[in-house]
Write a structure and sequence with these properties.
CATH class of the domain at 2-183 and 232-262 and 300-315: Alpha Beta
Shape: globular
Number of strands: 14
CATH topology of the domain at 2-183 and 232-262 and 300-315: Rossmann fold
Distance between the termini: 32 Å
CATH superfamily of the domain at 2-183 and 232-262 and 300-315: NAD(P)-binding Rossmann-like Domain
Structural class: alpha/beta
Radius of gyration: 19 Å
Bound molecules: nicotinamide-adenine-dinucleotide, uridine-diphosphate-N-acetylglucosamine
């Protein structure tokens, strides 16, 4: 029996595929490559020394999804495929609703037809909106401040309704905080399109000389140094959380929601310094006004995932920075450089 990984050519999905293959699982990937390259899949195969099945298809293509489920004995799904750029979601809300929500509906309908009712879903800490306090627990109120966040929140809601209607479904909602880093091989990593929106890819592109200087969005937040505080976690810790969640669903069916974060917040300035140590030189930066929609602080209380999954992030900031930097240095143009 195989595990279907939607979005398996993407940043987190490719790391999940590698971990699954290394754990002896059979893996089928579906990805339309709208934000990724097939080269990532090739490298996952090479690193694992094992094959996986790759389908280039869109989740919204019901016929293609049906054919994928007919072709392989798919037992469970890790569902990473989504569009994730907040700014773009504000400009193109219909695209985000169609891709993220409609795509998920078609996936769920296909799963139901084939009796595959175990799903691990990529949710996000964005579902907590602007939290009233930190650390954030799973029982905090949920809200969304942009269309991307709304698609995640809505999908969570759909999955709750589905599991309530049919308890044969087993579903884990994994709310990621800020995934960073890369596999230590330097062969797979995050490959953003154009100028990165997120902090760490921006810093590594400054470090490699592709961008001149980092813009720090706001130094007047009520935080210890005035810059925004987030919970950065290594992508390999994150994907291990997915395997633990799948194990839990198999042994105890139901619907569960977990924060996946380290439980520690770091400011923007606190992220620049370990990078400077890793690369051995200064990262130029300038302070600019706050980015609209940003919250001052968001970091997880990961106690529940520890208690129920036995999961805890083990990789520290230095390792996150070293691995992000190795990926960037070895692949200055991302996957495009090798195609
Ligand atoms: P990514 O863009 O690298 O990966 C997503 C993959 O899904 C891409 O390969 C893309 O081509 C594919 N895809 C998108 N729509 C598709 C569709 N309709 N059909 C088939 N394939 C499709 O993003 P990522 O960082 O790996 O994120 C994975 C998941 O985790 C997403 O659901 C994202 O919302 C969620 N998430 C990411 C972060 C983060 O900071 N990276 C944080 C919280 C949650
Ligand atoms: C972003 C997304 C959020 C998603 C989360 C996890 C936005 C507005 N939000 O959040 O929906 O759930 O990623 O992937 O995109 N920063 C700078 N300069 C930069 C980039 C970022 O100072 O060039 C700061 C930000 O203001 C923030 C911190 O760095 O304080 C982290 O930013 P980012 O990496 O974009 O992640 P989030 O804002 O947490």
């Amino acid at each position: 029996m195989a595990i279907l990984v939607t979005g398996g050519a993407g940043y987190i999905g490719s790391h999940a595929c590698l971990e699954l293959l290394r754990g002896g699982h059979d893996v089928v990937v579906v990805d339309n490559l709208c934000n990724s390259h097939e080269e990532a899949v090739r490298r996952v195969r090479e690193l694992a020394g094992r094959d996986l099945v790759f389908h280039r298809a869109d989740l919204r293509d019901a016929g293609a999804m049906e054919a994928i489920f007919r072709a392989g004995a798919i037992e469970s799904v890790m569902h990473f495929a989504a569009l994730k750029a907040v700014g773009e979601s504000v400009e193109k809300p219909l695209l985000y609703w169609d891709n993220n929500v409609n795509g998920t509906l078609i996936l769920l309908e296909t799963m139901a037809r084939h009796g595959a009712r175990t799903l691990v879903f990529s949710s996000s800490c964005t579902v907590y909106g602007d939290p009233a306090s930190v650390p954030i627990r799973e029982d905090f109120p949920l809200s969304a401040v942009n269309p991307y966040g709304m698609t995640k929140l809505t999908t969570e809601r759909i999955l709750r309704d589905l599991q309530r209607a049919d308890p044969a479904w087993s579903i884990a909602l994994l709310r990621y905080f800020n995934p960073v880093g890369a596999d230590p091989s330097g062969r797979i990593g995050e490959d953003p399109n154009g100028i990165p929106n997120n902090l760490i890819p921006y810093i590594t592109q400054v470090a490699v000389g592709k961008l001149a200087a980092l813009t720090v969005f706001g130094d007047d937040y009520p935080t210890r140094d005035g810059t925004g505080v987030r919970d950065y976690l290594h992508v390999n810790d994150l994907v291990i959380g997915h395997l633990r969640a799948l194990d839990r669903l198999r042994s105890r069916p139901g619907l569960v929601a977990y924060n996946l974060g380290t439980g520690e917040g770091h400011s923007v300035l606190e992220m620049i310094h370990p990078f400077e140590r890793v690369i051995g030189r200064a990262i130029p930066y300038r302070i600019a006004p706050r980015r609209p929609g940003d919250v001052a602080e968001a970091w997880a209380d990961p106690t529940l995932a520890h208690q129920e999954l036995g999961w805890r992030a083990t990789r520290g900031l230095e390792e996150m920075c070293t691995d992000s930097w190795r990926w960037q240095e070895m692949n200055p143009d991302g996957y495009a450089g090798s195609e």
